[in-house]
Fold:
Amino acid sequence: MTVGRYDYAYQLHDLPELGDALMEVVHAGGEVLGPKVAQFEESFAHYNGAQYCRGVNSGTDALTLALTAAGVGPGDEVITQANTFHATVAAILHLGAKPVLVDVEADSWTISLEQVEAAIGARTAALLPVHMYGNPSPMGRLAGLAGTNGLALIEDAAQAHGAAVDGQRVGTFGVAGCFSFHPSKNLAAAGDAGAVITDDHTVAEQVDVLRNLGQRGQNHHEVVGFNTKLDSLQAVILSAKLPRLEQWNAERRRLAATYRDALVGTGGVIPSEIPSAEPVHHLFPVAVPERDVVLAALREQGVDAVVRYPTAVHLQPAFEKNDLGRVGAFPVSESIARNTVCLPLFPGMTDDAQAHVVGALHSAMRDVA
Ligand SMILES: *Cc1c(COP(=O)(O)O)cnc(C)c1O
Structure:
């Protein structure tokens, strides 16, 4: 038996009208930022309990535009975590701002509040927590820190569509929340796409202008802009899928609970959740002894397990000149990068497929014990 990583056919099953809706956009010709985009933006804002949503071309662009709209610029410092994907740090650098990394907690793998507090200085402009794996960061405490220190709070929710803390959706705790709809994410377009959500009218307007080459109205370019708009075809696909997101996230939670039970006694370690968090298990990372041996054993048994982010972000060659931290600077993040393997977990995964993964994992873990 082989177990893959996604089931796109399952996500799109029973949507006979989707083809017609897509052809409608094609026949309409020039639908750039047309009604299909507006419609998705409205439903995604509503889903999250936010006032506004602006669709852009990727999660990376969502971060860049949200940071810019929040007033972050050259010389400003933005505090984020070492346990993240390249895009979080790249977005900060593209503005000419300085990423200041902190480590994550050893138990939850979420941003360390103590280290955030210690890193806040005169040049700090923003906090940028990342809800890695769909596991929410401690948003109440971070919002408190941002408030007391007069900082913009922006959430990288690229892996956490629908996750919540205390019943409030991630992405809504600060000035803006940034999402990716890359095909790998919990809400997936058929290519690159992203969005910014916010309750702040000025931020929404700024993102609107920035994504559209700095134009307010036609041919009046107010600021130096970007060209990064959510495509109408992607908006149609996202609108068709959004009503299914809750059910998919529930499936993810059920699969995660089964894995959690199956890991008891094996020596595999998974991140804990902060109190009142509702995670959405974008990925299911497990820290294991002899990771590469375990990975090879899983793959040998037809399980498409994968190592995400095998090099902690501060140790990537791209950031060598940026002085983000040496080897050993962020021991928890570095250990996650070294020891973690992600098990297949996706909506549409069958019980048989999951049982096969569990069997393969149990035998791999016995071998390295
Ligand atoms: C995917 C991802 C991004 C970037 O999103 P793209 O749409 O690929 O640009 C940013 N941050 C995190 C944590 C991600 O997982």
About this structure: The mean pLDDT is 97. The CA atoms of residues 104 and 112 lie 5 Å apart.
